[in-house]
Amino acid sequence: MFRLLKHTARKTTRRLLAPQFCSISTRTTKSANNFNAIIPSPCIQRTKTSFSAAVYFPQLRSISTTTTKTTPKPSTLNQNEFFSLQSASSMLVTGASFSWYFGPNFIDPIYGIGIVGLIGVHELGHAIAAKHYNVPCSPMKFVPFIGGFVKHDIPKNAYENAMIALGGPIVGAAGALGVAGVAHATGSHDLQHIALIGLIINGINLAPLGPLDGGRIVHAISPAAFVGGFGLSMYGLSQLYSSATLSSLMMDPIGTGLTGLIVGVGALQVYNIFTGNNMYTKEFMRIGTKKRIGVTALYFATMIGIGAAAYSYTEYMDADENEWDRLEKEGKLEEAEPFARQCLSRKIETLGVDDRNTLTTTVLLGFLLKKQGKLNEAEPLFRRALEGRERTLGPDHSDTLSSVSSLGLLLKTQGKLD
What we know:
The protein has 418 residues and is mainly α.
């Protein structure tokens, strides 16, 4: 009876996990019974991409194994279908989440449509590349507040895996640049913001960290690239936090949470590299030198191109703020005022009236007007900043108390304090 139950449990486990993994019959030492280790093995069977059990249970690698060839099962993924009813429904929900998260006025449809559309273009790039290499893939699916994904079978080797991963950022960045062109032609600040977010999304996906596209690409270059790439990724994230346009989004709880998750998984992957744990087989990693050089060149060219585009576009969007800062430092206050007002108008349109970055700009414009002696024009700005900070930060926050002090000093200068 015990042997029958054991056999039934083993057979059921194989059936449940067969689509994701290959079964390897493993012979252990005398102190243990025979069992099946579930470890991905592209050299035996082409299967769905998934995290390896060996990543979490590295002790399985130390066991001497005897592989048994299994008959490859036909893929359950539809290679000719990029979009489905489930794609549409998940896209709608995800678009609503981005509309709420990025929109300056709580619900802003243009942000939901624009951002989820650019994510869809990114995933379409993966699907097109998978189709090129005859790797079956599923219709794209979207996840609220996070993004989207396309499931596909494990390719023949690390080269094809890297090229499929590169397809997303290349096509996605092209889509973001297209939106930037439309934004420039129409003068829409919202589209400018959406285009920049699209470039940032595709750029971050190239970071050589486990859950991102870059984590799959560097496997075709060298596992050691994870170590240096992790440091470069931390530097890139610090630059995003210092951006005048994106700092408020990066410091948002959701943005901070996603950043922490990516960094945490990346750190775990670096640890696995140092400890010798690798989720792919040697056969999968074995590619020619020319292909390795080609992937390396395309990867860095794509990364530099998207990074340069994002940086240039950020400078373009922050041009009015930079010019305002330069003129104010030179003492040209009247010349700086139009740039300051334009900067505030742009931030109200793209970030919202009560955004922390917008409120800071409101205060700075108030100080600029105060320096010119335009006290009556500065007063409503100080009051607006105080009211906004009380609503969003609370009455005891340091920024709120700073606004109280600034408004009090202005009223004292006007002689309005009894």
